[in-house]
Protein backbone atom coordinates (compact mmCIF):
# COMPACT_ATOMS: atom_id res chain seq x y z
CA UNK A 1 0.00 0.00 0.00
CA UNK A 2 1.41 3.41 -0.97
CA UNK A 3 0.96 6.64 0.97
CA UNK A 4 -1.17 9.28 -0.71
CA UNK A 5 0.47 12.19 -2.49
CA UNK A 6 1.63 15.02 -0.23
CA UNK A 7 2.79 18.56 -0.90
CA UNK A 8 6.35 19.46 0.01
CA UNK A 9 6.28 21.68 3.07
CA UNK A 10 8.42 24.80 3.25
CA UNK A 11 11.37 23.19 5.08
CA UNK A 12 11.38 20.26 2.65
CA UNK A 13 11.58 22.74 -0.22
CA UNK A 14 14.60 24.42 1.37
CA UNK A 15 16.24 21.06 2.01
CA UNK A 16 15.75 19.99 -1.59
CA UNK A 17 17.41 23.21 -2.73
CA UNK A 18 20.36 22.45 -0.43
CA UNK A 19 20.41 18.91 -1.77
CA UNK A 20 21.09 20.23 -5.26
CA UNK A 21 24.29 21.77 -3.87
CA UNK A 22 25.43 18.74 -1.84
CA UNK A 23 23.70 15.59 -0.54
CA UNK A 24 21.56 16.55 2.44
CA UNK A 25 21.71 13.22 4.23
CA UNK A 26 21.49 12.21 7.89
CA UNK A 27 21.89 8.99 9.87
CA UNK A 28 20.73 7.26 13.03
CA UNK A 29 22.33 4.19 14.54
CA UNK A 30 21.49 1.68 17.27
CA UNK A 31 24.50 0.09 18.93
CA UNK A 32 23.11 -3.34 19.86
CA UNK A 33 24.51 -6.06 22.11
CA UNK A 34 25.28 -9.42 20.53
CA UNK A 35 26.26 -10.73 17.11
CA UNK A 36 24.25 -9.64 14.09
CA UNK A 37 21.93 -12.16 12.38
CA UNK A 38 22.17 -10.58 8.93
CA UNK A 39 19.47 -12.72 7.31
CA UNK A 40 16.98 -11.96 10.09
CA UNK A 41 17.86 -8.27 9.96
CA UNK A 42 17.28 -8.15 6.19
CA UNK A 43 13.91 -9.88 6.41
CA UNK A 44 12.86 -7.60 9.25
CA UNK A 45 13.78 -4.51 7.23
CA UNK A 46 11.77 -5.66 4.20
CA UNK A 47 8.75 -6.47 6.35
CA UNK A 48 9.01 -3.11 8.13
CA UNK A 49 8.85 -1.14 4.89
CA UNK A 50 6.05 -3.35 3.56
CA UNK A 51 3.82 -2.89 6.61
CA UNK A 52 4.54 0.81 7.14
CA UNK A 53 3.81 1.58 3.48
CA UNK A 54 7.22 3.10 2.85
CA UNK A 55 9.61 2.57 -0.02
CA UNK A 56 10.77 4.55 -3.01
CA UNK A 57 9.73 8.19 -3.24
CA UNK A 58 8.25 9.81 -6.32
CA UNK A 59 8.49 13.60 -6.65
CA UNK A 60 6.34 15.48 -9.13
CA UNK A 61 6.51 19.25 -9.01
CA UNK A 62 5.80 20.29 -5.41
CA UNK A 63 4.26 16.94 -4.44
CA UNK A 64 5.66 13.54 -3.49
CA UNK A 65 4.50 10.08 -2.47
CA UNK A 66 5.97 6.82 -1.15
CA UNK A 67 5.63 3.73 -3.32
CA UNK A 68 5.25 0.43 -1.49
CA UNK A 69 8.52 -1.49 -1.55
CA UNK A 70 9.25 -4.83 -3.17
CA UNK A 71 10.07 -7.14 -0.20
CA UNK A 72 12.32 -9.31 -2.35
CA UNK A 73 14.70 -6.45 -3.16
CA UNK A 74 14.33 -4.65 0.19
CA UNK A 75 15.70 -7.64 2.12
CA UNK A 76 18.91 -7.44 0.10
CA UNK A 77 19.22 -3.68 0.59
CA UNK A 78 20.79 -3.99 4.05
CA UNK A 79 24.49 -3.40 3.55
CA UNK A 80 26.93 -5.37 5.70
CA UNK A 81 29.96 -3.28 6.64
CA UNK A 82 33.11 -5.17 7.58
CA UNK A 83 36.81 -4.94 6.94
CA UNK A 84 37.89 -2.64 9.73
CA UNK A 85 35.74 0.31 8.65
CA UNK A 86 34.66 2.43 11.61
CA UNK A 87 31.15 3.76 12.05
CA UNK A 88 32.32 7.35 11.54
CA UNK A 89 34.12 6.41 8.32
CA UNK A 90 31.11 4.61 6.91
CA UNK A 91 28.69 7.38 7.81
CA UNK A 92 31.05 10.05 6.44
CA UNK A 93 31.08 8.31 3.07
CA UNK A 94 27.30 7.93 3.03
CA UNK A 95 26.71 11.56 3.99
CA UNK A 96 28.56 12.60 0.83
CA UNK A 97 26.86 10.09 -1.51
CA UNK A 98 23.74 11.29 -3.39
CA UNK A 99 20.61 9.17 -3.12
CA UNK A 100 19.82 9.67 -6.78
CA UNK A 101 23.28 8.47 -7.87
CA UNK A 102 22.86 6.53 -11.11
CA UNK A 103 19.09 7.10 -11.20
CA UNK A 104 17.43 8.79 -14.16
CA UNK A 105 15.54 12.03 -13.62
CA UNK A 106 11.93 11.73 -12.45
CA UNK A 107 12.45 8.11 -11.42
CA UNK A 108 11.47 7.07 -7.86
CA UNK A 109 14.37 6.82 -5.40
CA UNK A 110 14.56 4.90 -2.14
CA UNK A 111 15.45 7.46 0.59
CA UNK A 112 16.79 4.85 3.03
CA UNK A 113 20.15 3.05 3.17
CA UNK A 114 20.07 0.47 5.98
CA UNK A 115 23.34 -1.10 7.13
CA UNK A 116 24.87 -3.39 9.71
CA UNK A 117 28.36 -2.83 11.02
CA UNK A 118 29.56 -6.01 12.73
CA UNK A 119 31.85 -6.00 15.75
CA UNK A 120 33.16 -8.75 18.02
CA UNK A 121 30.25 -9.02 20.47
CA UNK A 122 27.93 -6.25 19.28
CA UNK A 123 26.79 -4.55 16.10
CA UNK A 124 25.57 -1.22 14.78
CA UNK A 125 22.12 -1.26 13.22
CA UNK A 126 22.03 1.92 11.19
CA UNK A 127 20.02 3.90 8.71
CA UNK A 128 21.31 6.67 6.45
CA UNK A 129 18.38 8.65 5.09
CA UNK A 130 17.56 11.45 2.68
CA UNK A 131 16.73 14.08 5.28
CA UNK A 132 14.04 15.98 3.40
CA UNK A 133 11.82 12.88 3.56
CA UNK A 134 11.80 12.53 7.35
CA UNK A 135 12.82 14.21 10.57
CA UNK A 136 14.56 12.58 13.51
CA UNK A 137 11.28 11.60 15.20
CA UNK A 138 10.08 9.76 12.09
CA UNK A 139 13.36 7.87 11.76
CA UNK A 140 13.15 6.87 15.43
CA UNK A 141 9.75 5.37 14.62
CA UNK A 142 11.18 3.52 11.61
CA UNK A 143 14.13 2.18 13.63
CA UNK A 144 11.76 1.12 16.40
CA UNK A 145 9.68 -0.97 14.03
CA UNK A 146 12.78 -2.49 12.48
CA UNK A 147 14.19 -3.30 15.93
CA UNK A 148 10.88 -4.79 17.10
CA UNK A 149 10.72 -7.13 14.11
CA UNK A 150 14.22 -8.38 14.92
CA UNK A 151 13.87 -8.73 18.70
CA UNK A 152 10.14 -8.65 19.61
CA UNK A 153 7.97 -9.17 16.50
CA UNK A 154 4.77 -9.25 18.56
CA UNK A 155 5.24 -5.56 19.45
CA UNK A 156 5.59 -4.38 15.84
CA UNK A 157 2.71 -2.38 14.40
CA UNK A 158 0.50 -3.98 11.77
CA UNK A 159 -0.82 -0.84 10.07
CA UNK A 160 0.88 1.73 7.84
CA UNK A 161 2.22 4.96 9.23
CA UNK A 162 0.15 8.09 8.74
CA UNK A 163 1.12 10.69 6.17
CA UNK A 164 0.99 14.45 6.80
CA UNK A 165 -2.45 15.95 6.19
CA UNK A 166 -1.27 19.54 6.11
CA UNK A 167 1.78 21.76 5.85
CA UNK A 168 3.50 24.05 8.29
CA UNK A 169 0.83 26.74 8.15
CA UNK A 170 -1.87 24.18 8.95
CA UNK A 171 -0.05 22.62 11.92
CA UNK A 172 2.10 25.49 13.21
CA UNK A 173 0.58 28.69 11.83
CA UNK A 174 -0.40 31.57 14.14
CA UNK A 175 -3.81 30.15 15.07
CA UNK A 176 -2.60 26.60 15.77
CA UNK A 177 0.89 27.47 17.02
CA UNK A 178 -0.37 30.35 19.19
CA UNK A 179 1.96 33.05 17.90
CA UNK A 180 1.40 36.50 16.48
CA UNK A 181 1.94 36.99 12.76
CA UNK A 182 3.03 40.56 13.38
CA UNK A 183 5.49 39.52 16.07
CA UNK A 184 6.73 36.76 13.79
CA UNK A 185 7.58 39.25 11.06
CA UNK A 186 9.16 41.65 13.58
CA UNK A 187 11.31 38.94 15.19
CA UNK A 188 12.50 37.82 11.72
CA UNK A 189 13.35 41.43 10.84
CA UNK A 190 15.17 41.96 14.14
CA UNK A 191 17.23 38.81 13.63
CA UNK A 192 18.08 39.80 10.05
CA UNK A 193 19.31 43.16 11.32
CA UNK A 194 21.26 41.57 14.18
CA UNK A 195 22.94 39.10 11.83
CA UNK A 196 24.41 42.02 9.88
CA UNK A 197 26.95 42.22 12.72
CA UNK A 198 27.62 38.48 12.89
CA UNK A 199 30.91 36.93 11.85
CA UNK A 200 30.84 34.92 8.64
CA UNK A 201 33.03 32.61 6.61
CA UNK A 202 35.58 34.73 4.79
CA UNK A 203 35.98 32.44 1.80
CA UNK A 204 32.90 30.21 1.40
CA UNK A 205 34.54 27.58 -0.81
CA UNK A 206 32.22 25.51 -2.97
CA UNK A 207 33.57 22.26 -1.49
CA UNK A 208 30.66 21.02 0.60
CA UNK A 209 32.00 17.58 1.50
CA UNK A 210 31.57 16.68 5.15
CA UNK A 211 33.29 14.44 7.67
CA UNK A 212 31.69 12.84 10.72
CA UNK A 213 33.13 11.92 14.10
CA UNK A 214 31.78 10.46 17.35
CA UNK A 215 33.00 11.72 20.73
CA UNK A 216 31.64 9.78 23.73
CA UNK A 217 31.18 11.60 27.02
CA UNK A 218 31.88 9.83 30.34
CA UNK A 219 28.91 7.86 31.65
CA UNK A 220 26.84 9.97 34.01
CA UNK A 221 28.22 13.30 32.79
CA UNK A 222 24.94 14.31 31.15
CA UNK A 223 23.22 14.23 34.55
CA UNK A 224 25.90 16.47 36.03
CA UNK A 225 25.55 18.88 33.09
CA UNK A 226 21.79 18.92 33.60
CA UNK A 227 22.26 19.81 37.26
CA UNK A 228 24.83 22.50 36.41
CA UNK A 229 22.42 23.98 33.87
CA UNK A 230 19.69 24.22 36.51
CA UNK A 231 22.07 25.98 38.87
CA UNK A 232 22.82 28.49 36.11
CA UNK A 233 19.14 29.04 35.37
CA UNK A 234 19.58 27.51 31.93
CA UNK A 235 18.78 24.38 29.95
CA UNK A 236 21.20 21.69 28.81
CA UNK A 237 20.91 23.04 25.25
CA UNK A 238 21.80 26.54 26.50
CA UNK A 239 24.96 25.12 28.07
CA UNK A 240 25.82 23.21 24.91
CA UNK A 241 25.41 26.38 22.85
CA UNK A 242 27.58 28.38 25.25
CA UNK A 243 30.34 25.75 25.07
CA UNK A 244 30.02 25.72 21.27
CA UNK A 245 30.28 29.52 21.18
CA UNK A 246 33.54 29.41 23.14
CA UNK A 247 35.00 26.73 20.90
CA UNK A 248 33.90 28.31 17.61
CA UNK A 249 35.10 31.72 18.81
CA UNK A 250 38.62 30.33 19.27
CA UNK A 251 38.95 27.85 16.41
CA UNK A 252 35.93 28.18 14.10
CA UNK A 253 35.61 29.21 10.47
CA UNK A 254 34.12 32.67 11.17
CA UNK A 255 36.87 35.03 12.36
CA UNK A 256 35.81 38.48 13.63
CA UNK A 257 35.89 41.30 11.09
CA UNK A 258 36.03 45.05 11.44
CA UNK A 259 32.24 45.44 11.37
CA UNK A 260 31.34 41.84 12.24
CA UNK A 261 32.26 41.01 15.83
CA UNK A 262 29.30 38.99 17.06
CA UNK A 263 28.96 35.21 16.79
CA UNK A 264 25.76 33.44 15.72
CA UNK A 265 24.68 29.84 16.29
CA UNK A 266 21.62 27.96 15.10
CA UNK A 267 19.46 25.32 16.80
CA UNK A 268 17.26 22.79 15.01
CA UNK A 269 13.91 22.48 16.82
CA UNK A 270 11.37 19.64 16.72
CA UNK A 271 8.01 21.36 16.18
CA UNK A 272 5.80 18.32 16.86
CA UNK A 273 5.25 19.04 20.59
CA UNK A 274 3.90 22.51 19.77
CA UNK A 275 1.15 21.17 17.53
CA UNK A 276 -2.37 20.63 18.86
CA UNK A 277 -2.63 17.44 16.80
CA UNK A 278 -1.01 14.15 17.76
CA UNK A 279 1.80 13.70 15.24
CA UNK A 280 3.51 10.73 16.92
CA UNK A 281 2.53 8.29 14.16
CA UNK A 282 2.87 10.76 11.28
CA UNK A 283 5.86 10.03 9.04
CA UNK A 284 7.20 13.29 7.72
CA UNK A 285 9.30 16.32 8.56
CA UNK A 286 8.35 19.03 11.06
CA UNK A 287 11.39 21.08 12.00
CA UNK A 288 12.03 24.73 12.72
CA UNK A 289 15.07 26.66 13.85
CA UNK A 290 16.16 29.41 16.19
CA UNK A 291 19.29 31.57 16.27
CA UNK A 292 21.27 33.10 19.11
CA UNK A 293 23.80 35.90 18.66
CA UNK A 294 26.40 36.84 21.29
CA UNK A 295 28.62 39.90 21.62
CA UNK A 296 32.44 39.61 21.74
CA UNK A 297 32.67 40.79 25.39
CA UNK A 298 30.19 38.08 26.44
CA UNK A 299 32.29 35.40 24.72
CA UNK A 300 35.05 36.03 27.28
CA UNK A 301 32.76 35.71 30.33
CA UNK A 302 31.32 32.22 30.85
CA UNK A 303 28.48 33.09 33.30
CA UNK A 304 27.48 36.07 31.15
CA UNK A 305 27.63 33.87 28.02
CA UNK A 306 25.25 31.30 29.51
CA UNK A 307 22.88 34.04 30.73
CA UNK A 308 22.85 35.74 27.32
CA UNK A 309 22.06 32.51 25.47
CA UNK A 310 19.51 31.32 28.04
CA UNK A 311 17.76 34.68 27.91
CA UNK A 312 17.53 34.70 24.13
CA UNK A 313 16.27 31.11 24.02
CA UNK A 314 13.67 31.73 26.75
CA UNK A 315 12.33 34.74 24.87
CA UNK A 316 12.27 32.83 21.57
CA UNK A 317 10.26 30.02 23.18
CA UNK A 318 7.83 32.55 24.60
CA UNK A 319 7.10 34.24 21.27
CA UNK A 320 7.32 30.97 19.27
CA UNK A 321 10.27 31.88 17.06
CA UNK A 322 10.78 28.25 15.99
CA UNK A 323 7.18 28.01 14.76
CA UNK A 324 7.47 31.41 13.05
CA UNK A 325 10.73 30.38 11.35
CA UNK A 326 8.55 29.11 8.51
CA UNK A 327 8.28 32.78 7.45
CA UNK A 328 12.04 33.00 6.95
CA UNK A 329 12.07 29.66 5.13
CA UNK A 330 9.25 30.76 2.85
CA UNK A 331 11.23 33.91 2.04
CA UNK A 332 14.28 31.76 1.21
CA UNK A 333 12.23 29.63 -1.20
CA UNK A 334 10.79 32.74 -2.85
CA UNK A 335 14.29 34.23 -3.22
CA UNK A 336 15.56 31.03 -4.86
CA UNK A 337 13.11 31.58 -7.72
CA UNK A 338 14.64 34.95 -8.53
CA UNK A 339 18.26 33.87 -8.95
CA UNK A 340 20.50 30.98 -9.93
CA UNK A 341 21.20 28.29 -7.35
CA UNK A 342 24.82 29.41 -6.91
CA UNK A 343 23.76 33.04 -6.40
CA UNK A 344 21.04 31.94 -3.97
CA UNK A 345 23.54 29.98 -1.85
CA UNK A 346 25.87 32.99 -1.66
CA UNK A 347 22.90 35.20 -0.78
CA UNK A 348 21.83 32.70 1.90
CA UNK A 349 25.30 32.61 3.44
CA UNK A 350 25.48 36.40 3.59
CA UNK A 351 22.12 36.70 5.35
CA UNK A 352 22.49 33.69 7.66
CA UNK A 353 26.15 33.81 8.76
CA UNK A 354 26.27 31.02 11.33
CA UNK A 355 29.45 29.81 13.03
CA UNK A 356 27.82 26.45 13.82
CA UNK A 357 24.63 24.66 14.71
CA UNK A 358 23.21 22.06 17.07
CA UNK A 359 20.62 19.28 16.97
CA UNK A 360 20.26 18.00 20.53
CA UNK A 361 18.00 15.09 21.58
CA UNK A 362 17.39 13.46 24.96
CA UNK A 363 16.28 9.87 24.26
CA UNK A 364 15.55 8.95 27.87
CA UNK A 365 11.79 9.07 27.20
CA UNK A 366 11.98 7.39 23.81
CA UNK A 367 11.12 3.77 23.06
CA UNK A 368 14.84 2.89 23.12
CA UNK A 369 15.11 3.67 26.85
CA UNK A 370 13.17 0.47 27.68
CA UNK A 371 15.92 -1.64 26.07
CA UNK A 372 18.91 0.29 27.43
CA UNK A 373 21.45 -0.92 28.44
CA UNK A 374 20.47 -4.61 28.34
CA UNK A 375 20.03 -4.74 24.53
CA UNK A 376 20.58 -1.25 23.11
CA UNK A 377 23.96 -0.03 24.29
CA UNK A 378 23.83 3.39 22.63
CA UNK A 379 21.85 5.50 20.18
CA UNK A 380 23.77 7.76 17.77
CA UNK A 381 22.58 10.47 15.38
CA UNK A 382 24.44 12.31 12.61
CA UNK A 383 23.12 15.55 11.09
CA UNK A 384 24.04 17.39 7.87
CA UNK A 385 25.61 20.84 7.79
CA UNK A 386 24.01 22.03 4.57
CA UNK A 387 25.66 24.93 2.75
CA UNK A 388 25.04 27.39 5.63
CA UNK A 389 26.98 25.68 8.42
CA UNK A 390 30.72 24.97 8.67
CA UNK A 391 30.17 22.64 11.64
CA UNK A 392 27.25 20.99 13.41
CA UNK A 393 27.05 19.30 16.83
CA UNK A 394 24.60 16.44 17.37
CA UNK A 395 24.53 15.50 21.08
CA UNK A 396 22.39 12.51 22.05
CA UNK A 397 21.82 10.98 25.48
CA UNK A 398 20.25 7.69 26.53
CA UNK A 399 20.27 6.79 30.22
CA UNK A 400 23.72 7.47 31.65
CA UNK A 401 25.26 7.25 28.19
CA UNK A 402 25.84 10.37 26.08
CA UNK A 403 28.04 11.44 23.20
CA UNK A 404 28.51 14.20 20.66
CA UNK A 405 28.50 13.44 16.95
CA UNK A 406 30.30 16.06 14.90
CA UNK A 407 29.72 16.89 11.24
CA UNK A 408 32.03 19.45 9.67
CA UNK A 409 33.26 20.68 6.30
CA UNK A 410 37.03 20.01 6.04
CA UNK A 411 37.34 22.68 3.34
CA UNK A 412 36.37 25.30 5.94
CA UNK A 413 37.48 23.59 9.15
CA UNK A 414 40.43 21.26 8.80
CA UNK A 415 40.81 18.14 10.91
CA UNK A 416 43.19 19.85 13.35
CA UNK A 417 40.85 22.76 13.98
CA UNK A 418 37.87 20.44 14.27
CA UNK A 419 39.78 18.48 16.92
CA UNK A 420 40.48 21.68 18.84
CA UNK A 421 36.86 22.76 18.62
CA UNK A 422 35.51 19.52 20.02
CA UNK A 423 38.26 19.31 22.67
CA UNK A 424 37.45 22.84 23.85
CA UNK A 425 33.73 22.00 23.87
CA UNK A 426 34.18 18.82 25.89
CA UNK A 427 36.65 20.43 28.30
CA UNK A 428 34.04 23.04 29.20
CA UNK A 429 31.51 20.28 29.84
CA UNK A 430 34.04 18.40 31.98
CA UNK A 431 34.77 21.46 34.09
CA UNK A 432 31.04 22.00 34.62
CA UNK A 433 30.55 18.37 35.62
CA UNK A 434 33.52 18.51 38.00
CA UNK A 435 32.28 21.71 39.64
CA UNK A 436 28.85 20.12 40.13
CA UNK A 437 30.43 17.03 41.72
CA UNK A 438 32.61 19.21 43.96
CA UNK A 439 29.66 21.26 45.20
CA UNK A 440 27.69 18.07 45.85
CA UNK A 441 30.57 16.61 47.88
CA UNK A 442 30.86 19.86 49.85
CA UNK A 443 27.20 19.58 50.83
CA UNK A 444 27.68 15.95 51.85
CA UNK A 445 30.80 16.78 53.91
CA UNK A 446 28.97 19.51 55.78
CA UNK A 447 25.91 17.37 56.50
CA UNK A 448 27.24 15.70 59.73
CA UNK A 449 28.11 19.07 61.23
CA UNK A 450 24.66 20.41 60.41
CA UNK A 451 23.03 17.37 61.96
CA UNK A 452 25.20 17.67 65.05
CA UNK A 453 24.36 21.34 65.43
CA UNK A 454 20.68 20.57 65.19
CA UNK A 455 20.97 17.98 67.93
CA UNK A 456 22.81 20.41 70.19
What descriptors fit this protein?
alpha/beta; 456 residues; seven-stranded mixed beta sheet; five-stranded mixed beta sheet; globular; disordered C terminus
Cα shape: globular
Sheet having the most strands? 7 strands, mixed
What is the helical fraction, as a range of percent?
40-55%
Computed CA radius of gyration, to the nearest angstrom: 23 Å
Structural class: alpha/beta
User: Which H/E pattern describes the elements?
Assistant: EHEHEEHEHEEHHHHEHHEEHHHHEEEEEH
Number of helices: 15
Report low-confidence residues grouped into runs of 5 or more: 441-456
Instruction: Give the CA-CA distance, first to last residue.
Output: 77 Å
Number of strands: 15
- Quaternary state reads single chain
Q: Mean pLDDT, rounded to whole units?
A: 90
% residues in beta strands: 15-25%
Structure overview:
The structure is a single chain. By secondary structure, the chain is of the alpha/beta class. Helices cover 43% and strands 20% of the residues. The chain has 15 helices and 15 strands. Helix 2 packs across helix 5, helix 8 packs across helix 13 and helix 10 crosses helix 15. It is globular and about 60 Å long. The C terminus is likely disordered.
Provide a concise account of the structure shown.
The chain is of the alpha/beta class. Helix content is 43%, strand content 20%.
Secondary structure topology:
Layout: E1 6-7, H1 10-21, E2 25-33, H2 38-52, E3 57-60, E4 63-66, H3 71-74, E5 79-81, H4 87-95, E6 112-118, E7 122-130, H5 136-151, H6 168-172, H7 174-177, H8 181-194, E8 211-217, H9 221-231, H10 236-251, E9 263-270, E10 287-294, H11 296-299, H12 302-318, H13 321-336, H14 341-351, E11 356-358, E12 361-362, E13 376-382, E14 391-398, E15 401-408, H15 415-455
Parallel strand pairs: 5-6, 9-11, 11-14, 12-14
Antiparallel strand pairs: 1-4, 2-7, 2-13, 3-4, 6-7, 8-15, 9-10, 14-15
Amino acid sequence: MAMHSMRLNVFQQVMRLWDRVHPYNAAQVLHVRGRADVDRIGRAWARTLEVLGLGRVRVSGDAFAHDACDPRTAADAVRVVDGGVTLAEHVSGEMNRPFDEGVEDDQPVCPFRPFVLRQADSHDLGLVYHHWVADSASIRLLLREWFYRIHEPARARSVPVESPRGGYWHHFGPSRGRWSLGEGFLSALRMTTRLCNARRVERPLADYRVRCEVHPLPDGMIGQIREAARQLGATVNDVFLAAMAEACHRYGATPPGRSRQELALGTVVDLRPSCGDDLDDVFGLFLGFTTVVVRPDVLRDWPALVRAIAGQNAWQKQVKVAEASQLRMAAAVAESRLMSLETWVRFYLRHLPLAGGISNVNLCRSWAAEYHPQVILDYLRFSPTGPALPILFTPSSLGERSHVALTYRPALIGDERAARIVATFIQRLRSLAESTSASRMAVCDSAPDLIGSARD
